[in-house]
Design a protein that fits this description.
The chain is α/β, with parallel strands linked by helices. 38% of the residues lie in helices and 19% in strands. The chain has a domain at 5-180 and 224-234: Metallo-beta-lactamase, Chain A. The chain is built from ten helices and 13 strands. Strands 1-2-3-4-5-6-7 form a seven-stranded mixed β-sheet, with helices on one face. The longest helix has 26 residues, at 288-313. Bound molecules: zinc ion. The site of zinc ion (ZN) has 6 residues, from helix 2.
């Protein structure tokens, strides 16, 4: 069991936003002297947990300069509109392609209800309030955001979605990966190395871009992967290879497997990967929701590929 707040190092605190289960989704507080930023907000119901993280640090809401979100999916940015209402000096830093979804979250909400089912949506993600456009700053690839004199490097990292940013904090050598560097839960630790699986969630997932992004992130040689689901994880190059190999298998499976059998195929693949890593299989059910989302996102990607192929033949 993880604790709700964990100080990593160099002023970085991981906040367990208690979405789905403890140890599933994180937001982060980065502090430099008397100022701070949040990276990710978690879903809407997590806002009180984030505000409590500030109080524990002896920081006022006025101390927060920005909320940086890796992408607009509601487990990452669902709390943005509500959190901003509590932070008078903060702006929201987001990928340019994410702006319209946060100022009018109605499409995100409808999409999430389709992906998760309405009941689960209401019980876990809860909704989203619109962000005031005047408080949004868009991020360009390679741009620096300064927290005092501490540079945070903003990176355009498409693949999981087309509005995805990663944020590299040179001071901690921590890389906030969002969902661009897969998913890795601590319940699976104890094998040859940690389990890491791709995050191929609907609806914009693109395998080619995801693989290119992985290589770009690995080349930064971070010390820590500050993953939303669920870091920190010490970086090692083998993790990149594990993800890349699985993505190649995902592609092969998507090409030859009927859509309704894809979840089963991904589960079998993951189970074999656990065996290779000498990790017991008995917690595989913890991955059920992710593998279900992965199957949906992969099928949507595959259908898009087929449509492209068909239209280029005509
Ligand atoms: Zn996510």
């Amino acid at each position: 069991m993880t604790s709700r707040y964990q100080e990593i190092h160099a002023g970085v605190t991981r906040i367990d936003v208690e979405y789905v289960r403890p140890g599933f989704a994180a937001a982060w507080l980065v502090r430099e002297q008397d100022q701070a930023v949040f990276v990710e907000t978690g879903p809407l119901p997590a806002v009180p947990i984030l505000l409590e993280a500030l109080t524990r640090q002896g920081l006022s809401p006025e101390a927060v300069q920005a909320i940086l979100v890796t992408h607009v999916h509601l487990d990452h940015a669902g709390g943005a509109g509500e959190l901003l209402r509590h932070l008078p000096n903060a702006r929201l830093v987001v990928h340019p392609r994410g702006v319209e979804h946060l100022t009018d979250p109605s499409r995100l909400i409808e999409g999430a209800k389709v992906v998760y089912g309405t009941e689960r949506f209401l019980a876990t993600l809860g909704g989203a309030t619109p962000v005031d456009p005047a408080r949004i700053t868009t991020a360009k690839d390679g741009e620096l955001f300064f927290l005092q004199d501490r540079p945070l490097i903003l990176l355009d990292t498409p693949g999981h979605s087309l509005n995805h940013l990663c944020i590299f904090d040179e001071k901690s050598r921590g890389l906030f990966t969002g969902d661009a560097f897969g998913l890795s839960y601590r319940e699976f630790d104890g094998g040859i190395r940690p389990l890491i699986i791709p995050a191929t969630t609907p609806t914009q997932f693109d395998i080619t871009q995801y693989r290119a992004t992985l290589q770009r992130l690995a080349a930064l040689q971070p010390e820590w992967l500050l993953m939303t689901h669920f870091g920190p994880l010490p970086f090692q190059p083998e993790l990149t290879d594990d993800l890349d190999r699985q993505l190649q298998h995902y592609q092969q499976l998507a090409e030859k497997t009927n859509e309704k059998n894809l979840f089963h195929a991904l589960t079998t693949l993951t189970s074999a990967h656990l065996n290779t890593l000498q990790i017991p299989n008995d917690s595989l059910n913890l991955l059920e929701m992710d593998l279900n989302l992965n199957a949906q996102g992969l099928a949507i990607w595959q259908n898009r590929q087929q449509r492209k192929a068909t239209s280029s033949c005509n």
